[in-house]
Design brief:
globular
Length: 139
């Protein structure tokens, strides 16, 4: 197992770890319905997820075909079905935060491919937050 990373975010706590085949995301909203991350938190989480996925990629057999698992719920909400539940990333309409929700048991176990998709969607959502922030300042 690689290093374990933990964040106390705006609302809740997130943890990231991995083994030789999977990335584990621990989502603990500490009594709320979801974790809320600032854009900086989201960027840090994306960087660490990328590091874990890269390590797995470098040790893995690349013959398995890529199968997309991303479900687009809206322009600002995406969901993945993980081994023991569903992970959802979104930007609430009234917020400049990234919301992370896990409806499942235990840690959210992700494949390397799912992790790459998640990093891409975090980056997309962070771009949306940046645009929303600029619009609020101009408006």
């Amino acid at each position: 197992m690689q290093a374990v990373h933990q964040w106390f975010v705006k609302q809740g706590r997130l943890g990231v770890s991995s083994d030789d085949a999977h990335i584990f995301l621990e989502v603990d909203p500490e009594g709320a319905s979801e974790c809320l991350l600032t854009p900086r938190d989201g960027s840090e989480v994306a960087t660490v997820l990328t590091q874990h996925a890269r390590t797995i990629w470098e040790k893995s057999d690349h013959s398995a075909p890529f199968t997309p698992s991303l479900e687009v719920l809206s322009e600002s909400a995406y969901r993945w079905q993980a081994a023991a539940g569903d992970l959802t990333l979104s930007v609430p309409s009234d917020s400049l935060d990234l919301a992370v929700r896990y409806a499942g048991s235990g840690q959210c176990q992700l494949t390397m491919a799912q992790t790459v998709e998640i990093v891409q969607m975090i980056e997309r959502l962070l771009d949306q937050i940046l645009v929303k922030s600029r619009d609020r300042k101009l408006g």
